[in-house]
C-alpha cells in the first residue's frame, strides 16, 4: 500500500477530502489491534469518532479499486448514520464510475437499501436490485438480493 | 516520486483523529499496517 496505493494522487485526494486519516503500526499498538479485530495487514478500517466500525478493507488493492472501496465504505458509514441521500450518492458514484467491478455490484446492493429506507419503498429497492441482477448476475451480491416482506 | 507523507497528512494519534472527526463530521480512516522495514 505504501509503495503503490497511498502515493497515488487520486487516492490521497479522496482520502484527504473525505476522511480523517490515522495510521496504526500494529506492533506498537497491540491494544488497538485487539480492539479493532485486526488479524492481518494491510487492514483499513472506516470508523466513526467513537470507534464504531462501519466498513473494512482487507488486503492490498491497487489505487482505482481502493478508491472504489473507500467510497463504498463511506456510503456504509452514512447509511449507518441514517443519512440516506448521502449514502445513496456514494453508492451511485461507485456503481457509475467503477462499472463492471465487484465494488459496483456491492454498491448497487446497498443503493437499493439506501433508497428503500427513508419511506420503506419497495419499488426503490426493487429497481436497484433488478439492475444488480441484470448487470451482475453472477455476483454474490445479486444472490443476496431478495426483496424482504417485512420492514427493517 | 512524491512520498506518502507528502500526499497524506496522517493524524499522529487515534484520539487526535477522533476529535477532529467529531469536529468536522467526518469518518476516521484507520490504516493498520506493519512497520516499514
Could you explain the architecture of this structure?
The complex is a heterodimer of chains A (152) and B (37). Chain A is mainly alpha-helical and 152 residues long. Helices cover 54% and strands 12% of the residues of chain A. Chain A contains 7 helices and 3 strands; from the N terminus they run αβαββααααα. Chain A has helices spanning 9-18, 30-35, 63-80, 84-97, 102-116, 122-135, 140-144; strands at 19-25, 43-47, 53-58. Chain A has a two-stranded antiparallel sheet. In chain A, helix 1 (9-18) packs parallel to helix 3. Chain A starts with 8 loop residues before the first helix and ends in an 8-residue tail after the last helix. The model of chain A has no long low-confidence stretch (mean pLDDT 95). Chain B is of the alpha+beta class and 37 residues long. Helices cover 41% and strands 19% of the residues of chain B. The longest helix of chain B is centred in the middle third of the chain and has 11 residues, at 14-24. Classes of the chains: A mainly alpha (152), B alpha+beta (37). Strand 1 of chain A pairs parallel with strand 1 of chain B, so a sheet runs across the interface.
List keywords for this structure.
heterodimer; A: 152 residues; mainly alpha; Serine Threonine Protein Phosphatase 5, Tetratricopeptide repeat; two-stranded antiparallel sheet; 3 strands; B: 37 residues; alpha+beta; 2 helices; globular
Present the secondary structure layout.
The complex is a heterodimer of chains A (152) and B (37).
Chain A: H1 9-18, E1 19-25, H2 30-35, E2 43-47, E3 53-58, H3 63-80, H4 84-97, H5 102-116, H6 122-135, H7 140-144
Helix pairs in contact in A: 1-3, 3-4, 3-5, 4-5, 5-6
Chain B: H1 4-7, H2 14-24, E1 27-33
